[in-house]
Specification:
It contains 12 helices and 19 strands. It is an alpha+beta fold and 408 residues long. It has 4 domains: 2-95, Rossmann fold (3-Layer(aba) Sandwich); 116-183, Dna Ligase, domain 1; 186-312, D-amino Acid Aminotransferase, Chain A, domain 1 (2-Layer Sandwich); 317-407, no CATH class. The strands form 4 sheets. An 8-stranded antiparallel β-sheet has the order 11-10-7-8-9-12-16-14, sandwiched between helices. Strands 15-13-17-18-19 form a 5-stranded antiparallel β-sheet, with no helix packed on it. A hairpin with a 2-residue loop joins strand 7 (189-197) and strand 8 (200-211). The protein is globular and about 60 Å long.
């Protein structure tokens, strides 16, 4: 049911304006009230399976457009749209978004400020490249998502384990199994939520991020403020990155870091952001990114008129240590500014943090979302609400339970 928790708002928005036929990898459940029809295929990321399903649906319905908010399906969906004669970015454009090394090369060719990046196949190659770039360096899979396999190495002694960590994640990739060794961009991380229609890009919002301490780059919290002064700072770089990749239509999630106050590109995701960021954008500005994506997919100009000027924040909930979840609950009344609290794990679930071989997403217990007139207040309210959470964990190695981050 995690798709509902993180993408339910997208399907609800699109279904309010369009009849939706869904191609999915499993029998629909929560999606059913929003669907006109669906087809289940073993692997929606497989172009041939997706094409066959899309053509079957095209024989039943007059399809107006096709799009996805799932990272792994971007290239296959672009191929399907092109085969059906529907609006789309070129498949090679989506392939460039999916491959971070290709993206870096295009950024360099078009003068978009980014980071030095070299693709390697072995730990020995990684060591040579790291010495040339200079420590600290970042190692990451060339084609993955959600910070999976991304790690920092500060010294040559840390490089071997960092390469092994990145290579293990890269080995799971279908589009590329290579590892990148990159210059570390030292500065706060933000993302820029953009909408492009017929080659013209509108910067809708800036998302400020809180990430975990090194060596990992896991996202812990996000906030969106409709009046964020960073909008004017980051907009030119975001537009330049989208142009460099050749994106002509759709919603993009552009990640960057501010180094000495200046934007340096991390990557461009050719889809609506995850972690409920699109929902935060709607709470803060009134702009509906899923509806915009659907409109563009159908060849229609999106309505990007802000209808409110506010702020919203999401606090992602993680266990203080790896272990077995015994109990989690929110204590107290819910103020009006607490938009929602969601738990995606239950008692008995094992939660493994990256240091113990898991990932932050699989260890994530849930999230809470708050609203406020400003981002500072929304973040403060999120921290206040988080203090009302009670998380009881039985650590991996046994010993005392950990409740709410305190030994008990």
């Amino acid at each position: 049911m995690e798709a509902e928790a993180y993408r339910g708002y997208c399907l609800q928005s699109v279904a309010a304006a369009y009849d939706v036929v869904l191609i999915t990898g499993e029998e629909p459940s929560w999606e059913v009230p929003y669907l006109r029809d669906c087809m289940v295929v073993p692997d929606p990321a497989d172009p041939e399976q997706l094409l066959a399903a899309g053509q079957a649906l095209a024989e039943r319905y007059d399809l107006a457009g096709v799009f996805t908010w799932t990272e792994w399906y971007l290239v296959a969906v672009a191929r399907l749209a092109r085969r059906l004669g529907l609006p789309t970015n070129a498949p090679e454009v989506m392939r460039a978004c999916r491959n971070k090394f290709t993206s870096r090369a295009l950024f360099a060719r078009h003068g978009v400020p980014s980071a030095a990046s070299v693709s390697v196949r072995t730990g020995a190659e990684a060591r040579v490249v790291a010495e040339r770039i200079g420590y600290p360096v970042v190692l990451k899979p060339a084609a993955h998502a959600a910070s999976i396999g991304v790690v920092r190495a500060d010294t040559p002694e840390q490089l071997a384990s960092a390469y092994a960590f990145a290579a293990k994640a890269a080995g799971l990739g279908q589009e590329s199994t290579s590892v990148l060794v990159e210059e570390y961009l030292d500065g706060p991380e933000v993302s820029v939520e953009c909408v492009t229609y017929q080659g013209e890009t509108t910067v809708v919002a800036v998302t400020r991020k809180t990430v975990s301490a090194p060596p990992y780059f896991e996202e812990l919290a996000h906030s969106v403020d409709a009046a964020d002064p960073l909008l004017d700072v980051v907009a030119p770089a975001a537009r330049a990155a989208i142009r460099a990749l050749g994106i002509t239509d759709g919603v993009s999630h552009v990640e960057m870091r501010l180094v000495d106050g200046r934007p340096r590109l991390v990557e461009v995701n050719g889809r609506i952001a995850g972690d409920m960021i699109g929902y935060l954008v709607h709470l803060a500005t009134g702009i509906d990114l899923p509806r915009a994506a659907a409109d563009i997919a159908c060849g229609r100009a999106p309505d990007l008129t802000p209808t409110r000027s506010s702020a919203a924040a999401i606090q992602l909930i993680y266990p203080p240590v790896s272990g077995t979840l015994r109990r989690v609950y929110f204590e107290g009344t819910s103020p009006r500014w607490l938009d929602r609290v969601h738990f995606q794990h239950q008692a008995g679930d094992q939660l493994l943090l990256p240091v113990d071989g898991g990932t932050m997403f699989t260890a994530r217990i849930g999230y809470l979302i708050t609203t406020a007139p400003t981002a500072d207040l929304a973040r403060a309210r999120a921290e206040q609400a988080a203090r009302c959470l009670h998380i009881d964990i039985a650590p991996l190695a046994g010993g005392a339970s950990v409740i709410g981050g305190r030994a008990a």
